[in-house]
DNA sequence: CATTTATATAAGCGTTCTGTTATATAACGA
DNA sequence: TCGTTATATAACAGAACGCTTATATAAATG
């Protein structure tokens, strides 16, 4: 899945995450999205292109506007991949005794 | 949470994801991790440093070795953030009718 | 001690990001 | 048709990235 490259690296940028957070509140046009940022419109357009390429948003054409909204594609793929790590961590947790033994920490309460 | 920058950008690299996938199968030393890759040891060391900085792995000291294993910190944070998008997507789905409605025909004149 | 083993750090280089300004395109409205 | 509005593209500079080779450090071993 080479798409994960695009998805994760799209999410790595705080501006792009902020754009997504805004879109979480509903559809918006490019200028609407650009407004809160101290950044030029071309810069925002590029960020949106990255998000679109990663499958995180989709756009429709409405006259001269291109309203964007969130897309499920990338999120699903990411969730699936992260599942691998989550499962592994859960297993590690089952083996917590081993971990604690090797860590030899200052006294602290362990849970089960 | 500016840690998300580090976490997502750490995950954006396929080599680093492969390292994590390997660690999902259990603890491993730097050389063990480096072995499958057509890449020098310093390169892997750097990748591991990035993963550690992002809170995706932790390492302990065992003689001259530094076995790595997965850490839950970053995953948790990422999951939390993605929750925002997931929720929004779920809502968008509820409002699917609206979306379809706005997409509806807005007859235009043929031309050219 | 001297050597080997496991890993880290440094310096150098080409490539990829991210922002800018300037300009293009396409639809709208008068 | 003309000007305006919404967005995209191009060209460019500087920062960040990822790899390499060479070297440093610190524990293990003989």
TrEMBL record, chains A, B:
Residues 1-90 form the HTH arsR-type domain. CDD domains: HTH_ARSR. The lineage of its organism: Bacteria, Pseudomonadati, Pseudomonadota, Alphaproteobacteria, Hyphomicrobiales. It comes from Bradyrhizobium zhengyangense. GO terms for molecular function: DNA-binding transcription factor activity. Signal peptide: none annotated. SUPFAM superfamilies: Winged helix' DNA-binding domain. Gene3D superfamilies: Winged helix-like DNA-binding domain superfamily/Winged helix DNA-binding domain. This is Metalloregulator ArsR/SmtB family transcription factor.
């Amino acid at each position: 899945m080479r798409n994960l490259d695009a998805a994760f690296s799209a999410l790595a940028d705080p501006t792009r995450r902020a754009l997504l957070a805004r879109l979480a509140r509903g559809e918006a046009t490019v200028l609407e999205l650009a407004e809160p940022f101290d950044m030029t419109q071309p810069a925002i357009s590029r960020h949106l292109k990255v998000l679109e390429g990663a499958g995180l948003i989709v756009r429709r054409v409405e006259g001269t506007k291109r309203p964007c909204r969130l897309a499920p594609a990338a999120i699903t793929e990411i969730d699936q991949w992260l599942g691998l790590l989550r499962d592994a961590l859960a297993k590690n947790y089952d083996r917590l005794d081993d971990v604690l033994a090797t860590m030899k920490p200052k006294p602290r309460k362990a849970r089960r």
